[in-house]
Amino acid sequence: MTLAPSQLEPELAEAYRQCADKNVLAALNPKIFFGYFSVCADPTQGHGHDTTFPGLDWGQSAEALLWLGRQAEVLASWEYVKTFLRADGLLPFAIVPSQAGTTVQMSLPKKTETYPFTVSANGGAYCHWFPGNPLLMLPNVTFIQLADAIFRHTQDSGWLAAQRPVLRQVTDWVLRQVTPLGLVPGGGFYVERPTRLEHDGVTQCYTAHALRLAARLTGEPGYAAGADRITAGFREKFWAGDHCVEYLNAEHGAISHHGLTDVDWAAIATGLATPEQVQVLWPQLRHNGDFRYHGIPTGISTRPETYEDWEMMYLDRHDLAAMGRAWYLEAWARSVMGDRAGVLESLRQVARVGRENNWYWRERYYSERSGDLGSYRINTYCEYPANFIRIVHRFVLAG
Questions:
Q1: Is position 49 within any domain?
Q2: Same domain for 76 and 114?
Q3: Are residues 321 and 364 in contact, defined by beta-carbon separation less than 8 angstroms?
Q4: CB-based contact 12:393 (threshold 8 Å)
């Protein structure tokens, strides 16, 4: 049984143990290969029993495993993902060995159109099947962030020196995506629908953050200059007077009418909001219950019912939900603002939802205001448990 940090109150200590033993550690599967872990504690529930997602799911679970003392498995997974790096510096958003060299036509409920999901001969999927290619920046940004997490845990200068060539290749690809105006292209950073074409606010924040990490890890000052360019572009293009613009759309312009969104949390967390903007944002965010969907943090918007069909590509509203990835941004922003009490209360909320579900968490929690979202509710998903562990260590115990 995993020992929870002694500083935690009993409710959170029990949740920590369950997050570790019943979820994150349970997802390890050396039968696939040493270092493999699934996105679900029960991999039969969805997303493939041998699939690796080098985007956010991989980075979240890997950092949680580092906190749980499973460094060897994380380093093995890191080496595995590195082998899928393309010559141009792009990493796949999914590695699906069982579908290597195939193209599958993907469909969605109530739609007649299909969308090609192509997996390269090596098993890597480098372009999302969903229209607009959301998640474009996600794997490379996550790779940089995980490199930082590994180095923070190991302080192994030899390991870092050996990784610098691949880190430069990955980061050079990221830097090439930044326009002269400091805008990062692609769809939603970690959501498929709304796709948030053409420039997603969360993408801007996370990309700038990753470039600053890469500058420190590699010693390349040009990466920090790229982050500065994104920051300047964000401050000019992504402010709507009293909250952040969610995304810039080529046809519809600046989209900022869905209330407060995860972009507001991201702008504070990553430092892209100016001090003056933070002063405007923080009072609106700090006690805002509209980010709670079915009692759990954090929904992507305080007004999910206002999204229009065109923003979903006239498909479903799958990602109008509370997700662990958005919760991490909230906790990160609260930590930046010194709101330890708010971080702890969000942990309690997540713990209570997990307790009610036999210490498992869903992939998505939908708002009652979002309309009919169907039944896409994969259980035993490791995102909330992994982020629970990360948030405890990074924003509670270190605070």
A1: no
A2: no
A3: yes
A4: no
Residue 43: pLDDT band (50, 70, 90) is: confident
Alpha-carbon span 135 to 363, nearest angstrom:
17
Asked, for residue 242, whether it belongs to a domain, the answer is yes
Range of the domain at 110: 95-127
**Residue 312 and residue 354 in one domain:** yes
* Same domain assignment for residues 109 and 137: no
The CA angle 380-385-391, to the nearest 5 degrees, is: 165
Classify residue 310: in a domain, yes or no: yes
pLDDT digits (tens, 9 = 90+) for 333-363: 999 999 999 999 999 999 999 999 999 999 9
What token pair was written down for 51?
């699939």
pLDDT value at residue 110: 67
Q: Are residues 184 and 107 in the same domain?
A: no
78 falls within a domain? yes
Does position 399 have pLDDT exceeding 70, yes or no? no
SS3 label, residue 321: strand
Question: Are 252 and 150 part of one and the same domain?
Answer: yes
Residues 142 and 239 in one domain: yes
CA angle 96, 138, 322 (to 5 degrees): 95
Cβ neighbourhood burial of 260 (10 Å; 0-12, 13-18, 19+): buried
DSSP 145-212: HHHHHHHHHH--HHHHHHHHHHHHHHHHHHHHHS-TTS---SS-SS-SSS---SEEHHHHHHHHHHHH
pTM for the whole thing?
Answer: 0.96
Closest CA to 92 of 128, 63, 43: 128
CA distances, 186 to each of 138, 250, 318, 374 (Å): 10, 12, 19, 27
